[in-house]
Amino acid sequence: MTTEMIIKIFLALVLGGALGMERQYHDKPAGFATNCLICLGAMLFTVLSEIMGFAGGDPGRIAAQIVTGVGFIGAGSILRDGNKISGLTTAAGVWLVAAIGMAIGYGEYIWASACAASILLIQLVLRRTLKLVERIRHYDTFFVTCEPRWSVVDKITKQIEKHHIQLLRSEVTKQKDLFHVSLVATFTGPEFQDITKELLEMPEVHSLYK
């Protein structure tokens, strides 16, 4: 094994592991081991595609399939619960880890390191900055499942308006003997937390999410 190959393996494990640790720290799918394997695998496939090119084959065939193949892995981390979709950031991270592995395989160590550092910067530093944005009023939709009585809907509306929050739109549908209320309003993150606590204390309310 050449020194260059050892460097590529080491760098793929370090960069993939660093990005995987961040995901695992935030208790997300595709953690440390998964990101290490994806980065290492993408690197190895890229090296093999270069070897194929020297042997007269098409070096782009294997490399192109990495992008397609890693998409299936990323799709497995995307979950949908009602109107809420989670795992998109993890899926995008898996895609980028594969790209970093490919960059290492082609010997672009600076590009790979710079991209890995950028991802960590976004995930660790800017994530905290977004918490400040939650204190600014913004449009959002939240959903309440409650007893199928209009008096309960009025009670929910009045409870929200006590916080001086303007309801912009409301929609009520009935499914399985329950009312599903969709509400659009402008509120801050702390205001939504207060509303959630108060509404969930009402015996007529079954669930609340956004």
Please, could you describe this protein's structure?
The protein folds into two domains: 3-132, no CATH class; 138-209, Alpha-Beta Plaits. The chain has 210 residues and is of the alpha+beta class. The longest helix is centred in the middle third of the chain and has 25 residues, at 109-133. It has helices at 3-25, 32-54, 60-75, 88-105, 109-133, 150-161, 189-200, and strands spanning 79-81, 84-86, 138-146, 167-175, 178-187, 205-209. It starts with a helix and ends with a strand.
Calculate the mean pLDDT score and round it.
83
Helical run tally? 7
Question: What strand line-up does the widest sheet have?
Answer: 4-5-3-6
Specify the overall morphology: elongated
Largest sheet: 4 strands, antiparallel
Tell me the number of strands: 6
State the end-to-end CA separation.
53 Å
Q: Into which percent range does the helicity of residues fall?
A: 55-70%
Return the string of H and E elements.
HHHEEHHEHEEHE
Radius of gyration: 24 Å
Helix-strand makeup class: alpha+beta
Percent of residues in beta strands?
15-25%
Q: Segments where pLDDT lies below 50 for 5+ residues?
A: none
**Number of structurally distinct domains:** 2
